[in-house]
Amino acid sequence: MTTSQTGRTAPWAKALGAVLLALLGAIIVANSIANSRETDRKHSAFEATRTDAQRFADSVVARHNAPPTSRQAIQAALDTSTGNKNGLLYSMQPAERRTKVVIQLTRSYPRSLALFGPAEATVDRCFTVIFEIDEVRHLSADITAHTADERCSGVVHQNS
C-alpha cells in the first residue's frame, strides 16, 4: 500500500522558505553594493597615483635647474614625494637637454570583503616623465600616465 500525500504545504515551511529567500536576497544586494564600493575605491586609488606623479615631478623641478642625471637624485625625489615605498624607478635615460624617467607608483585601498584575503589591495600605475630644459633655461616636466594594463617593463622595452 502506497501512501500519497496531497494537499497543502505546512505554514511553517512556507515561512521558513520566505525567510531564507529574503536572507539570500539581502546577501546578494549587500555583496553587489560592497563590490561597487570597492571598485570605486580602486579607481580612486588608481587616479591618486596621478597626483603622486605630479608631486614627484614638481619635487624634481624645484630641486634642479637642469635635467637630473643621477639615479640617486631621482630615487631620493621619488622616495620623499611618494612616501618611501610607493614609488619604483624603472628606468632613466639622460640626454643633453632632457632626461626620460619611467616610474611605477603604487596606492593601497581597503577591500570590502576581507574574509577571503587581505584587508588591503594595491594598484600600480606606470608613468613616463620627461624632464626638459627650454630655451630660457627653465626646467619643466611632461608626465604621461599609462593605462592600467600597461606594465612599466613593457613601457621601458617599447621606448628602448
Structure description:
The chain is of the alpha+beta class. It contains 3 helices and 4 strands, in the order H-H-E-E-E-E-H. The protein has helices at residues 11-63, 71-82, 152-158, and strands spanning 87-94, 98-110, 120-133, 139-145. Strands 1-2-3-4 form a 4-stranded antiparallel β-sheet, sandwiched between helices. A hairpin with a 3-residue loop joins strand 1 (87-94) and strand 2 (98-110). Helix 1 (11-63) packs across helix 2 (71-82). The longest helix is centred in the first third of the chain and has 53 residues, at 11-63. The termini are far apart.
Give average pLDDT, whole number.
Answer: 85
| Helix/strand order, N-terminal first | HHEEEEH
Q: Given the C-alpha coordinates, what overall shape results?
A: rod-shaped
Strand content: 25-35%
Q: Roughly how many Å is the radius of gyration?
A: 27 Å
**Structure classification:** alpha+beta
> Gap between N and C termini, in Å?
86 Å
Name the strands of the widest sheet in spatial order: 1-2-3-4
Largest sheet: 4 strands, antiparallel
Number of strands: 4
Could you name the ranges where pLDDT drops below 50 across 5 or more consecutive residues?
Answer: none
Please, how many helices? 3
Helix content: 40-55%
